[in-house]
Design goal:
The chain has three helices and seven strands. By secondary structure, it is α/β, with parallel strands linked by helices. The radius of gyration is 15 Å and the shape is globular.
Length: 127
């Protein structure tokens, strides 16, 4: 079971980080460890940094992020998107970094077929 961070409780115009922190604590206390965020989930990366990364030992959870391929048509832009995710989740300087990364849509050529040698990073572990 995973804790998806696409829709989090709001407080005013932002995410209710105190509520997310309580949810994270309950999730971990129940024995679950997998958290899933994405660059395009507005505010979720900052929220999970505050609610999880800054409050719990790194070895106690698995954090996955996803790249949105439509926003990153080149390897350079995909790498930039991933690095931004690492910064937002507070793991840019971590030696363990994000546990997994995934592309939400395969990169395709103009013909609609996957480009030869193109990798979505699907399932690739970074640590």
């Amino acid at each position: 079971m995973g804790f998806g961070l696409m829709r989090l409780p709001r407080r005013g115009l932002g995410i209710d980080v105190a509520q997310v922190s309580r949810m994270v604590d309950l999730f971990l206390e129940a024995g679950f460890t997998y958290f899933d965020t994405a660059h395009v989930y507005a505010g979720s990366e900052d929220a999970i940094r505050k609610a999880l990364v800054e409050r719990h030992p790194r070895e106690s959870y698995t954090l996955a992020t996803k790249l949105y391929a439509a926003m990153s048509p080149t390897a350079k832009s995909a790498k930039r998107q991933f690095e931004t995710s690492l910064e937002r989740t507070g793991q840019a300087t971590s030696t363990t970094a994000c546990s997994t990364r995934r592309a939400t849509k395969p990169m395709r050529s103009r013909t609609g077929l996957p480009r030869p040698g193109a990798s979505s990073g699907l399932g690739r572990r970074t640590s």
